[in-house]
Design a protein that fits this description.
By secondary structure, this protein is of the alpha+beta class. The protein folds into 2 domains: 192 residues, P-loop containing nucleotide triphosphate hydrolases (Rossmann fold, 3-Layer(aba) Sandwich); 401 residues, Anthranilate synthase (4-Layer Sandwich), CATH 3.60.120.10. The protein is 31% helix and 29% strand. It has 17 helices and 31 strands. Helix 9 runs antiparallel to helix 15.
């Protein structure tokens, strides 16, 4: 009886790309856990002019029966005699790898589970092919190359591949390709043994005493990497009984063991060294499948993060969690991916409580070299990373909404509340400055000096950077499943004198409007967390507490709950996304109202979340507020800057006071740059 094979992989590419070597080495890797069969298309091409006929025979005589779980039978081609050779047979196997020019042709693609396209520069391909096949191929190179060109002109095979490989022929391609294959939905189940092996690897760990300045260490190691992240507790001078300022984490995707994942409009791109996987699935589905949760450090080591993923979740991921699908023009230079993560192979964690530097490294990296590099950097660090002077000229910002327009939107939000469509609407606007000549890292240092915060962060993903002084936690998850949300609702500026400062703080404490805003969001988040939590564990240990920062006082609450046994951590986070403090309540209908009031404008990174997903199952994500987003202007060294700001609207809001709150929230970032709020 015929049985369907579990997986059929096609490896296509021009001659000399290294397809046969990749197929053989990939088969060796996969055979450790199951039987693998390999078919080479050169066995079926009928001569040097036979590419088209060979593809047709391959689909009919080889791929179609194998897809049905039946044996494939074909006549091999005797290249020396230039005539048909002996019949050959290939029986089904759990994995079948088919390699050769034409393996991914249009007629074959519907029968393949995954297509791998191998790419090599033309001059490299020819030298490799002729070195392998000698003068026999040299005499026919141009004839064969013309057929390949005709094939690819009529059939854009690379655009249909799920995995693209830049084959450097240095031995890295098979491992990188396997890592990319493990990420594909079609291979997820079959490659479970390989994924289990990866997640079971414990990172190397070194620690030594030290209290370096976090930003100075990041500057020495990562500030100018293309993909780097700093999650910094920069408000060490502020007392925090919640211990949110104990750890800082830094890493970069700067080794071949690291990975970069970006997600846009419902599809993801995963770069694993020289291989790139194209993943057609939602972001939270990817996270659920690839957030490994079984890695543990020794009991004596208590660290928040073990690699793991770090990065951002933009607000437009709301399309996956009940919100509408706002799409932006990908040609717009301000457009950034909906989400971006790195999986570093090397991580530094600073424990500010014990004054310890922890260095974590992947087992297949070179941990000793990394530790040595960190030691060398620490030996020459300055005591502190000095904040650069304000930008000259200072950036000139314009607002998406002027005062009159924003006040009108506040009234429109209140009308929606009057009609019963919402209880609270978190209306936002944005400020923009274009063509600014600046260094994104220096902008982070400016913000850091002006407004230290427990969830400060600096992100760099290629042509996008973000500098944040966020004080707000979105949600955290501990390895044993305890979730915590800490929404902020209610803001006052700091006063110029101690007396004025205390008066503003007292005003916030006694404000019924701010307290009502905060309690509504607490109720919303209790509901969000309850979807995957044990109801008996839901609690609110802090309600409407006041926290003070360099430029503002904030009203903060804390909601705790424990995940149900076996509940998906990724789905629990999705159930709470985006943060209720940035939407209002009820969440779904209010997001629809916001789409209209905010003119169909995508918020992008603003209102999303930044943080980590540890291999221990822990996570900690902050809300993206007080954040400067920077996108490089194509073809130049200048940057387009944007800053999102807003506030919660209730039935008794004063439109003018809401506009004043927008100005207050923008002040910390604008003043750090030497800029002012645009005149209305």
């Amino acid at each position: 009886m015929a049985t369907n094979p579990a997986l059929i992989l096609g490896i296509d590419g021009r001659s000399g790309a290294g397809k046969s070597t990749l197929a053989a080495e990939l088969a060796t890797e996969l055979r450790r856990h199951r039987e693998v069969a390999v078919f080479h298309l050169e066995d079926i091409y009928p001569g040097w002019d036979g590419l088209a006929a060979g593809m047709e025979s391959y689909v009919r005589n080889v791929l179609t029966p194998l897809r049905r779980g039946q044996c494939a039978t074909w006549d091999t081609w005797d290249w020396a005699a230039s005539a048909p050779g002996t019949p050959s047979t290939l029986r089904p196997a759990p994995v079948i790898i088919i390699e050769g020019v034409g393996a991914g042709c249009a007629a074959a693609r519907g029968l393949l589970d995954a297509l791998i396209w191998v790419e090599v520069p033309d001059e490299t391909r020819k030298s490799r092919a002729l070195h392998r096949d000698g003068e026999v191929f040299a005499a026919h190179w141009d004839r064969w190359a013309a057929q390949e060109e005709s094939y690819l002109q009529s059939d854009p095979v690379p655009s249909h591949a799920q995995v693209l490989v830049n084959n450097k022929a240095d031995g890295s391609a098979p491992g990188h390709t396997l890592r990319a294959l493990k990420a594909l939905p079609a291979t997820y189940t079959l490659l479970a043994p390989e994924r289990a092996e990866t997640s079971a690897r414990q990172p190397t760990h070194h620690s030594f005493p030290g209290s370096p300045d976090t930003a100075a260490l990041f500057a020495a190691l990562y500030a100018h990497e293309d993909h780097a992240i700093l999650l910094e507790s920069s408000n060490l001078a502020f007392s925090d009984p919640q211990e949110r300022n104990r750890f800082s984490i830094m890493a970069a995707a700067n080794t071949e063991q690291s990975a970069v994942f970006t997600h846009r409009d419902g599809a993801g791109i995963l770069r694993e060294g020289t291989a790139t996987a194209l993943i057609n699935s939602g972001f939270f589905n990817f996270l659920a499948q690839h957030w490994d949760t079984g890695s543990l450090l020794p009991e004596t080591v208590k660290l928040p993060f073990v690699p793991g993923w770090l990065g951002y979740l933009g607000y437009e991921l709301k399309r996956e969690t009940g919100g509408s699908d706002i799409r932006v023009d990908p040609a717009d230079p301000a457009t950034i991916p909906d989400a971006a993560l790195i999986r570093p192979s090397e991580v530094i964690i600073l424990d500010h409580g014990t004054h310890t530097v922890h260095v974590l490294g992947a087992v297949d990296a070179d941990p000793e070299a990394f530790v040595s590099r960190v030691h060398d950097a620490l030996a020459t660090l300055p005591d502190a990373a000095a904040a650069p002077a304000a930008l000259v000229p200072s950036p000139h910002f314009i607002s998406h909404d002027d005062r009159a327009g924003y006040l009108e939107k506040v009234r429109a939000a209140q009308e929606q509340i009057r009609q019963g469509n919402s209880y609270e609407v978190c209306l936002t606007t944005s400020l923009h400055s274009t063509g600014v000549e600046c260094d994104p890292w220096e902008n982070y240092l400016r913000l850091r000096a002006a407004n230290p915060a427990p969830f400060a962060h600096y992100l760099r993903f290629g042509q996008m950077a973000a500098a944040s002084t966020s004080p707000e936690r979105f949600v955290s998850v501990t390895p044993d499943g305890w979730m915590r949300a800490e929404p902020i609702k209610g803001t006052r500026p700091r006063g110029a004198t101690p007396e004025a400062d205390q008066a503003l703080k007292d005003e916030l404490v006694s404000s019924p409007k701010d307290r009502a805003e905060n309690i509504m969001i607490v109720d919303l988040l209790r509901n969000d967390l309850s979807h995957f939590a044990d109801p008996s564990t839901l609690s609110v240990p802090r309600l409407c507490a006041i926290e003070s920062y360099a430029t503002v006082h904030q009203m903060v609450s804390t909601i705790d709950a424990k995940l149900l046994p076996g509940a998906s951590r990724a789905e629990a986070i999705a159930a709470a996304f985006p943060a209720g403090s940035m939407t209002g309540a009820p969440k779904k209908s209010t997001m629809e109202i916001l789409d209209v009031l905010e003119d169909g404008r995508a918020r992008g990174l603003y209102s999303g979340a930044v943080g980590y997903f540890s291999a221990t199952g822990a996570a900690d994500l902050s809300v993206v507020i007080r954040t400067l987003v920077m996108v490089c202007t194509p073809g130049s060294d200048s940057w387009n800057l944007s800053l999102g700001v807003g506030g919660a609207i209730t039935s008794d809001s004063s439109p003018q006071e809401e506009w004043d709150e927008v100005r207050t929230k923008a002040f910390g970032v604008l003043s750090a740059l030497g800029s002012v709020f645009p005149a209305s």
